[in-house]
Design goal:
The complex is a heterotrimer of chains A (492), B (246) and C (493). With 246 residues, chain B is an alpha/beta fold. Helices cover 15% and strands 39% of the residues of chain B. Chain C has a single domain, classed as Single-stranded right-handed beta-helix, Pectin lyase-like (Pectate Lyase C-like), CATH 2.160.20. The chains are: A mainly beta (492), B alpha/beta (246), C mainly beta (493). Chain A: Keywords: Glycosidase, Hydrolase, Signal.
């Protein structure tokens, strides 16, 4: 009997210890974390994460309430679960963050795996207040910062920053009001971001989501409203790249660009699928690829993009800014089933941080695909595309003619920050192509609502272009020559 | 406590007033969130800079909401590309002088510059209903037209330079010069369609005014001047139809 | 007293003012962000110049910087309407005539007021922090005191000066940056049914009445970090007089009802009745004449004082008198029930009263004049004071020998405070330099034995103790009244 008893107790013990090591749910209150919105919980939350990670992992559950905190570090096998009504509230005191380090974020993770942030709750960075308080310490000389445009250049915390993490799941949460980029995934692998909401117009550089040198990244079913670029792929490391990224069923609103590759693009982008997305109210481009830093862009599919009230339709650009001798390339971009509307007025009016009025004077800018001399953008397909422009350009306000001399006078601006407006006035109203090798227009409809002094398409140094079923609509301009070729050839 | 260099300079300034000193708007608590009304912060900055002998107040890219401002001698406003002074549309938020209303105004000052590629934005579409509203309710007796604020007005000032600044969306006249002299206007885009009679430039008893590379797109006349005003030079200045301004 | 009645009649009969205006009609926005300073000012100016009336704030949050009240204008804040002080320090004026910052000024106006169930919220803490930042940046000059911006560079909610016929009815005044509401040299003031929640920052008084005449404060609740109901006299040629305070409650981490500290002219003809004071770190009732002022004809009738650090402190000092002779006489305090706790009574206030003047056992109520300025004719009637007792001589001791009693310093130039003498030799009441002090039917209770007697009188020139009850635990036959250098004092048990 005593043997049986011993076995039973052994089994019980075993079960117990296994249980200890299994993922488990923990309530935040268990760790003394307070939901009153005023108690600073940084150390309590950190203690909870450390404890859960050290005890087999699990979920740290936050129920309805406001949880004030500074920087917290994620650990392996821990998921923060924010129930509906729970708000993880960033402290407005800049000193509660990892100031002065590159890890400056409300939620920070590095080199860990199997982590997540889930639930219908909210992460609110209180970014404007954080930035103002930071600015104050800078003006008093307590924190050093060189300032950019009279704003803190460094030291502003992101809301979420994950680096070199594997197997990350971000689901259903809302992320708001960051002082800097909202959510950054840098050199992470196997990331799923699904059904989240980003609402961040609190301060300068509020990118919505930045995917940097990641592999196997899925961004699905999400809504992003951001003061800076909404959905942004970047490549910071010349030896890395973004590979196998899927962006599907997302909606993006931005006072900058809707979906963007770059600006920093050292390594590059490969096998990127952007499917069934919506973009609106962007001051800059609905879709843009910029590779000014030597990055290689290949095999990109944009399918089913619907964009309206966007300042520019499409902007593909190779530059030579920080490329250090390496040559950037864009090769193999297919854009199909696309509808875009460009308005006459500023599309992002009403954003607190509107896109800046710049590069004036210029009339409405065309979609542009612009490589460099000897470094053409290659193999572009535009299939089933319709773009609606306001037209109404005024040559007395800004003028760029189509004579050889005028076209050649457009600067290359290889080293400049790549932006759809950087050349000021361009000579076409719908598409301006320069330094392109291999471009196919197939069933493309270009509509100007009012008269234009410019032709629809200007090609300069374009080889192997083919136009099938290209339809131009401009009021009162039947028979106008809408296609101007300069140093360019059409494929027969 | 360590303070920023320019604060030290600011305090040391009375000893050397010849130097043009740079000040950032943020040092005075100005914020560019487009929502915070910065009137008193900006005015305090202008007053302080002028009192210390002059200098440049720099605004960087962003929207600075403000009510009416009075410019002072020896103060340069530098609106860097992308910086916008946005007029607060409240009826009572404008400067009121001698029966006229202004967004940006200066009287009996000298050596004033507004430079940079930024914008002074009148928000006419929001201003107009507020005027109509006060008139309809009978709180003000004047006609709506006479209440439309002029975007930028100078009265009895000398040595004025506006270079590069875009003047947009004025409710009434865009730029009004009354008894001013030595005025340089150049590289400016002026665009305002809200008021059918709104003039681009309105000159009264002002002399030595020069215009260079101006593009004036307004509903009323590009340039209105009385007999006693003299324009010393006009160069490359046009209206939207390409006609030179006269 | 008759004058008071006529005054009340007058205030009740103030004619109904001309007309109601909706402040939103002047373009004022109640959205919590729009800065409405100029629009509200324009509205006030308009109403004042068009026959007067009420400027009505419907529910909403109205942000504003400094505005000036004008004659015949009432700001009426409906329930749900809040006037919010701007968070930008530049949005406040420091009026040169007043030389003090305020959100709402009135200077030399009449028939003005603020009424309704709404709130004026100065957002003082944030304002103070923002001002401090500008000081640190060198943009505002301030020498700082205790690492805080001086009180005159922080905005009050209300500053009315030299105004007549003021009505403040129903409103809530919240979170000022400095004092809360000051009425300076005004006449005919009615404060009725007001709620004051003033604990956001340093120097947050509840209400300050300075050199005013014909004042009624009633049915109001004051909760303040600094003194709750405070009468001051800044001007040696002016005086606070004809004042009625009734049916009020006061909570404070300083004093509940106070005359002073600045007391140049004085205080005359006061009736204070049915007052509840609680949670005060300092005195429930304190009258200070330290700057040459007069305190005369004061009736305090009906006070319930719970959890207060000290009950009564009457003090003549000689601080800024400049040769003027301070006088305090003809004071009646009756029908008082008071409980003094062992612990700090203002625990939990953000700005608790500072722990100071230690070591000392629980301080007694005190009447303390100066050798050549006696406090005269004070009657204390129907009073019960409950003390914790437990005065421990090993912690702090002041014995009853002539040397010890005479060794208590006069401190005539010091800031007057119940604790200023540190340990006093009585646990219930300490009297010094006074004339004709009469106790009738007064009960003192100590909940634990105290090494001190209940009452010590030093240099008391005439007076009486009749109907006295002393109830000290385990006191036995301890002598509870001790006289020193006193004469003509009658003691009847």
């Amino acid at each position: 009997m005593s043997a049986v008893k011993r076995i039973v107790s052994f089994v019980a013990l075993l079960a117990c210890s296994i249980g200890m090591l299994q993922a488990k749910d923990y309530n935040a209150s268990f760790f003394g974390i307070k939901s009153n919105g005023t108690t600073l919980n940084t150390t309590s939350i950190q203690r909870a994460i450390d404890y859960i990670s050290a005890n087999g992992g699990g979920k740290l559950k936050f129920y309805v309430g406001r949880y004030l905190t500074g920087t917290i570090h994620m650990k392996s096998n821990v998921t923060l679960h924010l129930e509906e009504g729970a708000v993880l509230l960033g402290s407005t005191n800049i000193n509660d963050y990892n100031v002065g380090t590159p890890n400056n974020a409300l939620i920070y993770a590095k080199g860990v795996e199997n982590i997540g942030i889930t639930g219908k709750g909210v992460i609110d960075g209180q970014g404007r207040e954080v930035a103002y308080n930071l600015m104050d310490l800078i003006h008093k000389g307590i924190i050093e910062d060189p300032l950019d445009y009279d704003r803190p250049r460094n030291n502003r915390p992101k809301a979420i920053y994950m680096r070199e993490c594997n197997n990350v799941t971000i689901k259903r949460i809302t992320v708001k009001n960051s002082a800097d980029w909202v959510s950054v995934y840098d050199q992470c692998k196997d990331v799923l971001v699904d059904s989240i909401t980003i609402d961040s117009k609190a301060f300068w550089n509020n990118d919505g989501i930045d995917i940097v040198d990641c592999q196997n990244f899925k961004l699905l079913n999400s809504y992003v409203d951001a003061a800076d670029d909404a959905i942004c792929l970047k490549s910071h490391d010349a030896s890395k790249l973004n590979e196998n990224v899927e962006i599907r069923n997302c909606t993006a609103r931005s006072s900058a660009n809707g979906i963007k590759f770059g600006t920093v693009s050292a390594g590059g982008y490969k096998n990127i699928r952007i499917i069934n997305n919506k973009v609106y109210d962007t001051f800059r481009s609905a879709f843009t690829i910029a590779t000014p830093d030597g990055g290689i862009v290949e095999n990109v599919l944009v399918d089913s993009l619907y964009a309206y009230n966007t300042g520019n339709a499409i902007y593909l650009r190779i530059g030579a800014r920080w490329n250090k001798g390496r040559k950037g390339a864009i090769k193999g971009v297919t854009m199909q089933n696309i509808y875009i509307e460009v308005p006459a007025e500023k599309p992002d009016a009403g954003y607190a941080y509107e896109g800046p009025v710049e590069d004036n004077p210029r009339n409405i800018s065309p979609a542009s695909i612009i490589g460099l001399k000897g470094q053409p953008i290659e193999d572009i397909i535009l299939r089933n595309v319709e773009i609606v422009y306001p037209g109404g350009s005024n040559p007395n306000y800004a003028f760029r003619g189509v004579s050889a001399k005028e076209l050649d006078a457009i600067p290359e601006m290889a080293e400049a920050y790549p932006e759809f407006s950087q050349f000021k006035e361009l000579p076409a109203w719908a598409f301006y192509l320069r330094h392109v090798d291999g471009i196919q227009f197939e069933n493309v409809k270009l509509i100007a609502k009012e008269k234009e002094y410019r032709p629809a398409i200007v090609m300069d140094d374009v080889k192997n272009a083919s136009l099938k079923q290209v339809d131009y609509q401009e009021p009162g301009k039947k028979g106008k020559k809408q296609l101007v070729l300069h140093n360019s050839t059409l494929k027969k | 406590m360590k303070k920023l260099l320019y604060i030290i300079i600011l305090l040391a300034l009375p000893f050397g007033k010849v130097f043009a000193v740079d000040y950032n708007a943020s040092a005075f608590g100005c914020v560019s969130d487009g929502q915070t009304n910065n009137t008193r912060s900006i005015q305090a900055a202008i007053d302080m800079i002028s009192a210390k002998g002059g200098g440049t107040l720099n605004f960087y890219v962003g929207r600075y909401l403000t009510g009416g401002l009075e410019l002072k001698s020896n103060v340069t406003i530098n609106l860097h590309e992308g910086a916008i002074l946005v007029a607060s549309p409240g009826f009572y938020d404008f400067i009121q002088k001698a029966g006229k209303r202004y967004f940006i105004y200066a009287e009996k000052q000298e050596n004033i510059k507004i430079i940079g590629k930024g914008v002074i934005l009148g928000q006419a579409a929001l201003v107009a209903p507020n005027i109509q509203n006060q008139v309809n309710k009978g709180f003000v007796k004047e006609s709506v037209d006479s209440l439309l604020p002029t975007l930028v007005g100078f009265s009895h000032c000398q040595q004025i330079t506006l270079d590069g600044i875009m003047l947009r969306d004025a409710s009434g006249d865009v730029l009004d010069l009354d008894h001013c002299s030595q005025v340089t206007l150049k590289n400016q885009l002026i665009k305002a369609h809200a008021s059918p009679k709104g003039a681009g430039l309105r000159l009264a008893a002002s002399t030595e005014v020069s215009l260079d590379s101006m593009y004036v797109d307004v509903a009323g006349k590009a340039l209105v001047k009385d007999a006693s005003s003299k324009i010393s030079r006009i160069n490359k200045s046009v209206t939207p139809n390409g006609k030179p301004i006269k | 007293m008759k004058r008071l009645l006529t005054l009340i009649m007058c205030l009740c009969c103030l004619q109904v003012l001309a007309k109601d205006y909706d402040v939103k009609d002047f373009g004022v926005e109640g959205n919590g962000t729009t800065l409405n300073t100029r629009s509200i000012q324009a509205a006030i100016d308009y109403v004042s110049t068009h026959g007067g009336g009420r400027l009505v704030f419907t529910p909403g949050n109205y942000v504003t910087g400094t505005i000036y009240m004008k004659s015949n204008v009432i700001l009426h804040l409906e329930r749900g309407a809040s006037i919010l002080g701007s968070l930008n320090p530049w949005d406040y004026d420091k009026d040169p005539y007043i030389n003090w910052k305020s959100l709402i000024y009135a200077i030399k106006q009449e028939n003005i007021g603020i009424t309704g169930q709404g709130i004026i919220n100065g957002r003082g803490f944030d304002n103070a922090m923002n001002t401090l930042n500008l000081v640190h940046r060198g943009l505002i000059e301030d020498e700082l005191k205790y690492d805080r911006v001086r009180e005159w560079n922080r905005p009050e909610n209300i500053y009315f000066r030299e105004c007549k016929n003021i009505k403040m009815i129903g409103i809530t005044l919240k979170d000022p940056g400095s004092w809360n509401q000051t009425y300076d040299q005004c006449q005919n003031i009615l404060v009725d049914s007001m709620t004051v929640d003033s604990k956001s920052y340093w120097n947050n008084d509840g209400i300050d009445i300075v050199d005013c005449k014909d004042v009624v404060i009633r049915n109001s609740h004051f909760d303040a970090a600094d003194d709750a109901i405070c009468f001051k006299s800044h001007d040696a040629n002016a005086i606070c007089e004809n004042v009625l305070v009734e049916n009020c409650t006061a909570r404070s981490s300083a004093s509940g009802l106070k005359f002073g500290t600045v007391s140049r002219g004085g205080f005359r003809n006061f009736v204070i009745r049915n007052l509840t004071v609680y949670d005060t770190y300092r005195s429930a009732i304190t009258f200070a004449a330290v700057d040459g002022g007069l305190v005369e004809n004061i009736l305090v009738d009906g006070v319930r004082s719970i959890n207060t650090g000290n009950v009564i402190f009457l003090r003549i000092g000689d601080r800024w008198s400049k040769g003027k002779r301070p006088v305090m006489r003809n004071i009646t305090i009756k029908n008082v029930y008071a409980e003094v706790p062992m612990d700090k009574p203002d625990k939990g206030y953000n700005y608790e009263g500072p722990i100071e003047d230690l070591p000392r056992n629980i301080s007694p109520a005190s009447i303390i004049g100066l050798p050549n300025h006696l406090i005269e004719n004070v009657t204390l009637e129907n009073i019960e004071m409950v003390y914790p007792g437990a005065g421990n001589p090993y912690y702090a001791k002041r014995g009853l020998t002539p040397e010890e009693l005479d060794g208590i310093p006069e401190m005539e130039a010091a800031y007057p405070e119940f604790s200023q003498f540190k340990e006093l030799p009585a646990w219930g009441f300490y009297i010094r330099h006074a004339k004709n002090i009469n106790f009738k039917n007064v009960t003192f209770r100590a909940m634990a034995p105290d090494y001190r007697p209940s009452i010590v009188a030093d240099d008391l020139q005439g007076g009486s103790f009749t109907g006295m009850t002393f109830d000290e635990v385990k006191a036995g036959n301890k002598e509870q009244i001790f006289l020193h250098n006193s004469k003509n004092v009658e003691i009847q048990k």
